[in-house]
Amino acid sequence: MKRHPLEVLATMLCGTILGDQRTVAAAEKKFSGRVSIDSRKLAAGDLFLALSTGQRDGHLFLSDAAKAGAAFAIIERHFEAEFVSLKLPIPAVVVADSVLALQLLAASHRDQFDGLVVGITGSVGKTSTRSMLYEVLQARYSGRQSPANFNNTLGLPLSILELECTQDEFAVLEMGAGQRGDIARLCEIAQPEMGVITSIGLAHLATFGTPLSVAESKAELFESLPENGVAFFPGHDPFALVLKDKAHCRTVTVGEDAVNDWTIQQVRAVRDGYRFVMDGQDYFIRTVARHFVQNAGLAIAVGREVGISNAEIADQLAKWQPVSGRCSLIPHSSLTILDDCYNASPSAMAAALRTLEELGEREETRTIAVLGDMAELGEISEREHRRVGQLAGGLSIDFILAVGQHADLIAKAAKATNLSSHRLAVARDVEMAWMLLECWIEEGDVILVKGSRSMGLERIVENLRSFQPAVRDRFHRLSA
């Protein structure tokens, strides 16, 4: 961010300065322009912003930040007296709300940034679409993308503050929502010129109530776009008309159905990934998940919009690697591990199960589905867990291990499809799930691990990484 004098920062944040002229002058000279909220990662010269959230209080680490070389700090008023008593060798800007201060700093920094800002949201597919688009835009431009899951009212401002205004030419920012108004608030800060909505699904219904409410929440991205902006979304989405109506700019639709402006054609599985054709160009993406083709299509459409050629985009997408925990393959000498445990919704669960079935059929080997709870579904939770069990039992999947509070719902629905009892198990927690799973695993198995992040199924993935299965004489496929 711009190296403002502390007096200017204090005015911008409606705050006051704690510190004498000498320490303030030294801080202004030392300030690097970087902002840190973690004293463990802070570099000398950084501004330490003491965030006060429900999970932690950054004020407790002010001494650590000063020792690490912070130039100055931003603190909340409730800690002013304590800060004075600490007698730290750095000044502070005192504000009413540290989270709001972070957002105001980011908004100010965004005003200084002349590059392209693309916002991405959706019920599923945000992260893979974001990472694909980042890869595509690098064909001609330099820029940044949101790191990891920095997609909320804390993470997005931090992503913006990382932008180098004199060097970066674009920013691809992921946007998540826990309630109505969240996307609108993020857009106030980010001021996107283009927006991508990947899909509308049955996610976070415990908060939103209905799929229509989800659609309207995601559409806040389109409502924020300028008249000369562009809104990208799947034209075949059940809520496509809602999304289009909310956009006051040009819209571009992408998908396999002919109703779309950009049509994805000839989708086919090949070794190590999928090939497809769009706008006459053959594309390849390295993934086992067919549904990632739609995300790639959206990334291609944005790339074409900013003048990147089909050939350049194809070269870039061929380099793309799936993000860990999002339908990514884990290297293993004798197993195929499909790690999709970062999160789960009904549509994402269905897509992962079909991917598992396709992998098993392609490699002519056994398949195991480890299925955890889908969180935040509200009133439809029981119904959707039963649907997952019914789908899993009806597919060519050899073993199903249901984990969590709703495991019985999945298991009973799967059993109702005539799945044999010896191919079905229920575990209340991850520890029990692992004990059951390791009894099943044999060399060559394809194993899907899928569930909401709160389930902690990544522990099963970590166990699988080092697990060496028994080698047994067996048929590749089990009969029912």
UniProtKB/TrEMBL annotation:
List ligand-binding residues for ATP: 122-128
Q: Is DNA repair given among the entry's keywords?
A: no
Q: Which UniProt keywords apply?
A: ATP-binding, Cell cycle, Cell division, Cell shape, Cell wall biogenesis/degradation, Cytoplasm, Ligase, Nucleotide-binding, Peptidoglycan synthesis
Which residues does the UniProt record annotate as the domain Mur ligase C-terminal?
325-453
Q: Which InterPro entries match?
A: Mur-like_cat_sf (IPR036565), Mur_ligase_C (IPR004101), Mur_ligase_C_dom_sf (IPR036615), Mur_ligase_cen (IPR013221), Mur_ligase_N (IPR000713), MurCDEF_CellWall_CoF430Synth (IPR051046), MurE/MurF_N (IPR035911), UDP-N-AcMur_synth (IPR005863)
Q: Which residues form the Mur ligase central domain?
A: 120-302
Could you say which enzyme class this protein belongs to?
Answer: ligase
Query: Which Enzyme Commission number(s) are listed?
Result: 6.3.2.10
Q: What does the record give as the function of this protein?
A: Involved in cell wall formation. Catalyzes the final step in the synthesis of UDP-N-acetylmuramoyl-pentapeptide, the precursor of murein.
Q: What name goes with this protein?
A: UDP-N-acetylmuramoyl-tripeptide--D-alanyl-D-alanine ligase
Q: What is the lineage of its organism?
A: Bacteria, Pseudomonadati, Planctomycetota, Planctomycetia, Planctomycetales
* Gene from which this protein is expressed: murF
